[in-house]
Task: structure prediction
Amino acid sequence: MEDVAALAEVSRDRALRQWASSVVDDNADGTRWVQAQQQGWAAGNRFGFAVLEEQPNPVRAQLVGNVVLKEVTAGKPAAEVGYWTAAHARGRGIASRALEALTNWAFDTFEAHGLERLELLHQVDNPASCRVAQKSRYDFETLLPAAPPSFPREGHLHIRRARA
Result:
């Protein structure tokens, strides 16, 4: 909850709003968003992590992004990953490093419960997400048809398989 104000601030970014599945307009929306993340943890099917960057002489670390593991079900071989990066933190490899940490955590935590692969989806007109997928060793699998309203344009499906 201590990141709600920062979440509302970074959510004003037009590019982030273009790709995000949920919109945070103010602190009330931010509180609801964080509560939804907490409910996912409690249910054991969605695991969101704030990506924080330490600051020199910080009062606290700065919010620079988010990564999420979603649609986790025991015995189901696949789950989905997602991420976003704040505008002020883009272009520094933060998304790919955070995604790599999430990927390792997901397989370490859920592989014994049947998790075999992670899926990363993005719209074709989001080349930055494609670069993050490639840098994080998520192989391109297929072109996805548009599925409005949540996925209004064609997309890419990238896959990362569990370590052999």
